[in-house]
Design a protein that fits this description.
By secondary structure, this protein is α/β, with parallel strands linked by helices. It folds into two domains: 5-162 and 312-435, 3-Layer(bba) Sandwich (FAD/NAD(P)-binding domain); 166-308, Elongation Factor Tu (Ef-tu), domain 3, CATH 2.40.30. The chain is built from twelve helices and 16 strands. The chain is globular, with a radius of gyration of 22 Å.
Length: 439
């Protein structure tokens, strides 16, 4: 490309990481951040990479998927993880930081880098001619959101994040459930958790009484009918769920030969069959309450949650429809997207996508082919989920073991299996980095 500068819009975790990765590879970067010229309802400072919610970046344990992702980022010279490692506060196995010092350290590194020019102004439109990365996060400005609508097509840009829980397939008690689709259409595609009237009554009462997460002021958004929390539906009447997401119509329990009183359906979330979505169960219950209440569902007494349900204001694209696995937009490959905007959940996941986008931005400017890590790595498994999921059911996701391809050999011990997945991920990442001269 003849262009000599990489334009990055958004100075959050993803944009800061992308700017660092590109600049460290000798590329000139112009990083736009609209604060303090224009404030958001969530941010308190004008610092780059400000953490607006928790100060925890999740587990550092190498037997945790988030720990594997962090270790991969360390090996690729992540600014975000380096800053986090240098500003830690005690938090057990989690990587928690002194948030103000964390942001100050990143801001200083970015502003002092000879290849980065920080511009404090709003970018209302996606740059038309330049190679650009958009990493503006869940609170993207209204003007830029309109430009994103054009790039992604209006039907593939969302402003309200409605998420149902995802559970580990191995934790389902398969002897208490049955596989079927309604009226046997489409094969035995769903795992069905049948309830008697008594079981439903107990579940319904617990759902109504469960503790909810209070909305933040900037999340006071009216519910759309397509993303009403399960507990809000329940408040409309005792039978609402039975005629809604828990309707048993078209389903016969082969063990009894009868139609259950109510059914909770689980939909396979990935091609490996290791993750299952609780269909229609978007919720604002707290995480402990989700564990308590949803484990009352037959077959889920020992459910392990890979992702908890939530419902909050967000801006994200339908990544499988919009993105290549290099984080380039299919309709306009000179535009890359990263961070929460692409449909990842979590601080580290957002920064990880910025890391890949920064690498690919630098490669494109140097006339090299953009790259994507192997699926067996934490980065690659996230990218595979983002770009190869069914776009009809796409929802934002955090890193978890359900996204990794299974290891070839059968290992029953979960800890041993996870250790092997982590070992394979790091080995494959190192090999990929060497092949592409990224280290």
């Amino acid at each position: 490309m003849s262009q000599q500068e990489f334009t990055i819009v958004g100075g959050g975790l993803a944009g800061s990481e992308a700017a660092w990765q590109a600049a460290e590879r000798g590329v000139k970067v112009r990083l736009y951040e609209m604060r303090p010229q224009i404030h958001t309802p969530a941010h308190k400072t004008d610092g780059l990479a400000e953490l607006v919610c928790s100060n925890s970046l999740g587990s550092n344990d190498p037997l945790n998927a988030s720990g594997i992702l962090k270790e991969e980022m360390r090996r690729m010279g992540s600014l975000i993880i380096c800053a986090a490692d240098g500003t830690t506060v005690p938090a057990g196995s989690a990587l928690a930081v002194e948030r103000e010092e964390f942001s100050k350290r990143i801001t200083k590194e970015i502003e002092n880098h000879p290849n980065i020019d920080v511009v404090r102004q709003e970018v209302p439109d996606i740059p038309s001619d330049d190679l650009a990365l958009i990493a503006t996060g869940p609170l993207t400005s209204d003007k830029l959101a309109e430009s994103l609508r054009y790039l992604t097509r209006a039907d593939h840009l969302y402003f309200f994040d409605s998420i149902a829980p995802i559970i580990d397939g191995e934790s389902i008690e398969m002897d208490k459930v049955f596989r079927a689709s309604r009226y046997d259409k489409g094969g035995a595609d769903y795992v069905n958790c049948p309830m008697t009237r008594e079981e439903y009554d107990r579940f319904y009462g617990a759902l109504l009484a469960g503790e909810k997460v209070p909305s933040k002021p900037f999340e006071k958004t009216p519910y759309f009918e397509g993303c009403v929390p399960i507990e809000v539906m329940a408040e409309r009447g005792r039978e609402t769920l039975v005629f809604g997401p828990m309707k048993p119509v078209g389903l016969m329990d082969p063990r009894t030969g009868k139609r259950p009183y109510a059914v909770v359906q689980l939909r396979q979330e990935n091609r490996f069959g290791s993750c299952y979505n609780i269909v229609g169960f978007q919720t604002k219950l707290t995480w402990p309450e989700q564990r308590r209440v949803f484990r009352m569902i037959p077959g889920l007494a020992h459910a392990e949650f890979l992702r908890y349900g939530s419902l909050h204001r967000n801006t994200f694209i339908n990544a499988p429809f919009v993105l290549k696995d290099t984080l380039q937009a299919r309709r306009k490959p000179a535009v890359l997207l990263a961070g929460q905007l692409v449909g990842v959940e979590g601080y580290v996941e957002s920064a990880a996508m910025g890391l890949i986008a920064g690498i690919n931005g630098a490669r494109l400017l140097k006339g090299l082919e953009p790259v994507s890590p192997p699926d067996t790595t934490a980065h690659g498994s996230l990218l595979a989920y983002l770009t190869r999921s069914n776009p009809r059911h796409f929802q934002p996701m955090n890193i978890n073991f359900g996204l990794f391809p299974p290891i070839p050999e059968t290992i029953r011990d979960k800890q041993v299996r996870r250790r092997e997945i982590g070992r394979r991920a790091i080995e494959d990442l190192n090999r990929w980095c060497l092949q592409n001269k990224l280290l």
